Known about the structure:
Blueprint: H1 2-8, H2 13-25, H3 30-37, H4 41-53, E1 57-62, E2 65-70, H5 75-102, E3 106-111, H6 112-123, E4 130-134, H7 138-142, H8 146-158, E5 162-168, H9 171-177, E6 185-190, E7 200-204, E8 208-213, E9 218-223, H10 225-241
Parallel strand pairs: 4-5, 5-6
Antiparallel strand pairs: 1-2, 3-9, 4-7, 7-8, 8-9
Helix pairs in contact: 1-2, 2-3, 2-4
Amino acid sequence: MLHKQLQNAGLSENEAKIYLAALELGQTSVSRIARQAGIKRTTVYLSLENLKERGLISAIKKDGKTHYFAEDPRDLERIMEERKKEISNLIPQLLAFTNLIDNKPEIRYFEGDEGIKEVLMKTAEVPNQEILMMFSDTYISDFGDDFFEKFYRPERFKKKISSRVLMPETQQMHELSGKNVEHLRKSKFLPPNFFKINIEMLIYEKNKIAIISYKEKFSFIIDSKDIHESFKSIFETLWAGAK
């Protein structure tokens, strides 16, 4: 159908039908165009104005009435070229807008113990990296050590992923630090009255941070170079003052 092809060229369905009706009828009235196109007269007026703006329809006064006629169909080529040029001019602006979107932090949210396990395993996907961690002993009471022992640590060891850990200076954390060498880990302590942390934070790769609440059963990953560098700076500052 011709009106479908005209739609592909950028006209609306009504505009395509009205333009074809005007081509067939020659110089004619709105009412005749409406009947030929099978469109209500009130709707035809708006489409005619749009077609006039595009240079596809013209109007003249005759016997005190306005008559319309279709311009040369070859003008469609001009319209397509103009549209192509407009799109080409828009591309740099659209790409700049896309870059702004790309630069926004990506945040992924996970729920439940299974979500926490998924987040932990995601932190160990890239081999030969160092993960910076901050956590308290609440993970033992709220989540347990079984998953770490059977899945997470073996994955880290296999991929030679080391870690540095900041933890509160408690008896339980001192006992945990006794396994530093076999766990590919270095740890430092901060006073528990100063380092009041009930979550776990993992700063990893070049642009990611994982935050886990074992008690509240949720976790999320932030993918942002700026946020990553900021938290890494905080970690290094604390690390320099820890013992």
